[in-house]
Amino acid sequence: MKLKELREQVCEANLELDRRKIVVHTWGNVSGIDREKGYIVIKPSGVSYDKLTPDKLVVVNLADGKVIEGDLNPSTDTKTHLVLYRAFPTIGGVTHTHSAYAVAWAQARKEIPCFGTTHADYCHGAVPLTQPLTAEEVAADYEGNTGEAIVRRLGNENPLAKPMVLVAGHGPFTWGKNAPDSVLNAVFLEEIARIATTTVMLAPNAGPVEEYVSEYHYQRKHGPGAWYGQKKG
Amino acid sequence: MKLKELREQVCEANLELDRRKIVVHTWGNVSGIDREKGYIVIKPSGVSYDKLTPDKLVVVNLADGKVIEGDLNPSTDTKTHLVLYRAFPTIGGVTHTHSAYAVAWAQARKEIPCFGTTHADYCHGAVPLTQPLTAEEVAADYEGNTGEAIVRRLGNENPLAKPMVLVAGHGPFTWGKNAPDSVLNAVFLEEIARIATTTVMLAPNAGPVEEYVSEYHYQRKHGPGAWYGQKKG
Amino acid sequence: MKLKELREQVCEANLELDRRKIVVHTWGNVSGIDREKGYIVIKPSGVSYDKLTPDKLVVVNLADGKVIEGDLNPSTDTKTHLVLYRAFPTIGGVTHTHSAYAVAWAQARKEIPCFGTTHADYCHGAVPLTQPLTAEEVAADYEGNTGEAIVRRLGNENPLAKPMVLVAGHGPFTWGKNAPDSVLNAVFLEEIARIATTTVMLAPNAGPVEEYVSEYHYQRKHGPGAWYGQKKG
Amino acid sequence: MKLKELREQVCEANLELDRRKIVVHTWGNVSGIDREKGYIVIKPSGVSYDKLTPDKLVVVNLADGKVIEGDLNPSTDTKTHLVLYRAFPTIGGVTHTHSAYAVAWAQARKEIPCFGTTHADYCHGAVPLTQPLTAEEVAADYEGNTGEAIVRRLGNENPLAKPMVLVAGHGPFTWGKNAPDSVLNAVFLEEIARIATTTVMLAPNAGPVEEYVSEYHYQRKHGPGAWYGQKKG
Fold first, then answer.
1. How many CA atoms lie within 13 A of B61 on its CB side?
2. How many CB atoms lie within 10 A of CB A27?
3. Which residues form the signal peptide (chains A, B, C, D) (predicted)?
4. Rounded to the nearest 5 degrees, what angle is found at the Cα of C52, between the Cα atoms of C50 and C54?
5. CB < 8 Å & 24+ apart, contacts of B188-191
């Protein structure tokens, strides 16, 4: 993909965040990567969605975080994105939002159990929650260490099977095979979090759905022989 | 009704799901049946609503589930639809969604009691909840057995008087005399579930409305001498 | 006001219900009265808002409920409206909805305490709740007796100071000096009910706002020397 | 800034309240100040947003509250705005709304703890709650004393670091460096209050985010060397 196309795709993905109404004001950022050339394209910091155009996006070097192209400052969360791209070589896009229900679970410091098939269709198992950062980690490199906390929490799990996380006291990060896919996962996480909130209000002791059901749903969509959609199994 | 018209009606019903904002992304599917010719028309799997046109719908044989017409794969939930059409000869349309409040009750594994007249106007008695499937049922034929669990739960009740069900850990299925009617029942179920959620939050011990009131409301709209609307009693 | 204008005003008021998004489908009806000529104009039964035009409204005699003009059946709630117009001579419009939060309080069978100034601005004291109807009242004249239950509950209170009520297990009725005013009160009641729901979730033992504050707010807007808005005090 | 421009900016800020859907009907008002000339421009009382134009705004003298220009009555909350402008010399705009979640916290009479970074980005520490007014304060000068209660509650805090307050039993006031900024703070407060509501429902004993995290976020956006956005640090 040429840089021009990547700029357009990432710009469109940022605007989609706004259209899906899961961000307020400038609260969110999306990036996409070109693995061959070793750079990412990311939203500039604090620019509102109605003024965002592909040429305003910032190109940042994957290896050292230096700005390669662009007059504006990149998102203050850029370092977090970079850590994720370096740790998860299969992902192509990252999204950060402050969507209300996902943030509430992050503030409540609770993982979201897999209560049903809606969840199972998009995330394998519970939506994980990071450990809080220490004062030292915040002082030394807050954004970078936020990424490290996510990577530690994911551990050996396949990031494309668990494409979402809650940063304790902060909010969600999601990723995917490219920028638009990471935005869809942000939308799905918010809906999953919203439904889970109502679930625990109706049944405080609700448990996860039977594992053979969630496993079936996940495999139907994402397993090696997935038969959901129009892909050839 | 000609196939062309049925395609248009079912396509329009699928789009109505999206317009009523009770589905996110591609999460939902609607079908309609031609009882004389013995086939159903259903949404293709994983196609987003903004790309759905009547010619993309898939025609499936009622008797054996084979695709009669259409290049795309039918919804992965097709087998569930077929089981319902076979068991309930009076219904003409089926809708499945992941609408948030209905899913939350399904995840909380609770029936929705008939708390008031809004509910009574559209569903005779509580909105029922299926038994969970066993691991064997999931392994053998998940979608077909989901339909069977619904049929078992409905038992001897009139499916047009109780046109909605919650599948435990999964979400709602609704039906009606045709596809648009099944969509309306999905919309009504979501609103009923939303109001019921607030009701139990305000009064955890709330009980159903007096049966003579719910019966009166139901008969006013759906009984043999119904006088609601513009039909002649 | 001429009949043509009253038809237009009441039609517009019904459409406003839909635009304010406090009704789903056909769930609501608004009427207006011409006291001099002794008739009311009301929504026809079960007609959806996108097909409603002034000429489709039904004119009904105040004294005996007979249809004076119109080919369609009037709302099934017409008798309730008539009882209210007869008992409250100062009101000029009546609205009935199934708006979600107001219905939830009606289903929870709880009055809405005056928790704050938002409430006090539009309703003097708690939003009252009717007693449930008996089986005999339902069998004899459900809609008329619903009106009687409201009138009994209001007692000696000024209906323009308390322009809203919750019918137990059913939902809200509101009224005002004319049809548009009754719709505004339905909108305000829904917002009051929504805020009150969150209030009791945050503070289950929340009490009403100090009476000298609610009284001040109510008088500022509706008292004899009201100075809110652009009316001359 | 010329009066004409201030009128346009304040009018636009009032309309933004409506567009952001945090006000119902006429429930809200925004003002802006010209410190040099010593007057404020404020919304007229009880005028709906679809009829609001810059020339309908009212110009009021900061020193004595007299109307300098305008045929309409200024907002009944004008005195509260004036007290805030006099006490907080660094602010340039004030907004009052009855947005649902902020009002619910005000009615529940609870401060909103700083549960996470979404909050920390816009308000330094908890969103404060005023003491209730006494009957004497209400009788003597309700609107003026509402302002005084806010000022007392803010105490020595920097009003631009804590640009929001909940008036007990009433609702929120927010401010900022100008009118549009005060509206943004009203939007942010509503979102903060909404997320905080879900947080306490999920975790009734949730505590504030670690102070070194909230402090970091606040300084990143608003501290002396802020590096968020496109301003030069």
1. 6
2. 19
3. none
4. 145
5. B188/B121, B188/B122, B188/B123, B188/B164, B188/C24, B188/C25, B189/B99, B189/B102, B189/B122, B189/B123, B189/B127, B189/B164, B190/B22, B190/B97, B190/B99, B190/B100, B190/B101, B190/B102, B191/B118, B191/C24, B191/C100
D24 has a chain C CB within 8 A of its CB? yes
Smallest CA-to-CA distance from C165 within C156, C154, C176, C155 is with C154
- Placement of tokens 């209730």 in the chain: D132
Contacts of residue A223, defined as CB under 8 A and 6 or more positions apart, other chains included, come to none
To the nearest whole Å, the CA of A193 is away from the closest chain B CA by 10
D31 CA: distance to closest CA in chain C (Å): 17
Chain C interface includes B98 (CB < 8 A) = no
- Alpha-carbon dihedral sign for residues B113, B119, B125, B130: negative
**Inter-chain contact C24–B216, Cβ cutoff 8 Å?**
no
* A228 has a chain B CB within 8 A of its CB: yes
Low-confidence ranges of chain B (pLDDT < 70): 231-233
- Which pLDDT score, from 0 to 100, does residue D231 have? 59
Closest-CA residue to B105 (of C21, A201, C24): A201
**Interface contact C216-D46, CB threshold 8 A:** no
- Whether the complex's predicted ipTM surpasses the cut of 0.90: yes
B228 annotated active-site? yes
Write down the catalytic residue from C49, C121, C141, C142: C121
Laid out side by side, the sheet with C93-97 consists of: C67-69, C58-61, C39-42, C28-34, C93-97, C171-176, C164-167
SS3 C123: coil
* Residue A151 burial by Cβ neighbours in a 10 Å radius (0-12, 13-18, 19+): middle
Contact between chains at C139 and B203 (C-beta distance less than 8 A): no
pLDDT in tens, chain A (233 residues): 899 999 999 999 999 999 988 888 888 999 999 999 999 999 999 898 989 999 999 999 999 999 999 999 999 999 999 999 999 999 999 999 999 999 999 999 999 999 999 999 999 999 999 999 999 999 999 999 999 999 999 999 999 999 999 999 999 999 999 999 999 999 999 999 999 999 999 999 999 999 999 999 998 888 888 877 875 43
Rounded to an integer, the average pLDDT of C20-39 is 92
Structure tokens at A58: 């910032």
Report the alpha-carbon distance of residue D192 to residue D43 in Å, rounded: 26
Q: What value does the CA radius of gyration of chain D take, rounded to a whole number of Å?
A: 17
Of C98, C100, C138, the CB nearest to B198: C100
Smallest Cα–Cα separation from D172: which of A24, C116, A107?
C116
Q: Which residues of D touch A171 (CB under 8 A)?
A: 116-118
- HSE, side-chain direction, 13 A CA sphere, residue D122: 29
DSSP bridge pairs for A112: A127
What are the chain D neighbours of A44 within 8 Å (beta carbons)?
230
D11-48 pLDDT, tens digit per residue, is 999 999 999 888 888 889 999 999 999 999 999 998 98
State the DSSP string of A73-120. Answer: PB-TTHHHHHHHHHH-TT--EEEEE--HHHHHHHHHT--B---SHHHH
State both tokens at D210. Answer: 């670690």
DSSP C55: G
Counted across chains A and B, CB pairs separated by less than 8 A come out at 87
Q: Which two tokens stand for residue B6?
A: 């049925």
Domain segments of chain A as ranges: 3-222
Does B109 contact A at CB distance below 8 Å? yes
CATH number of A3-222: 3.40.225.10
D233 lies within 8 A of chain A by CB: no
Residue bearing tokens 């030292």: A136
User: Of C191, C199, C229, which has the smallest distance from its Cβ to D46's Cβ?
Assistant: C229
pLDDT (0 to 100) of residue B232? 46
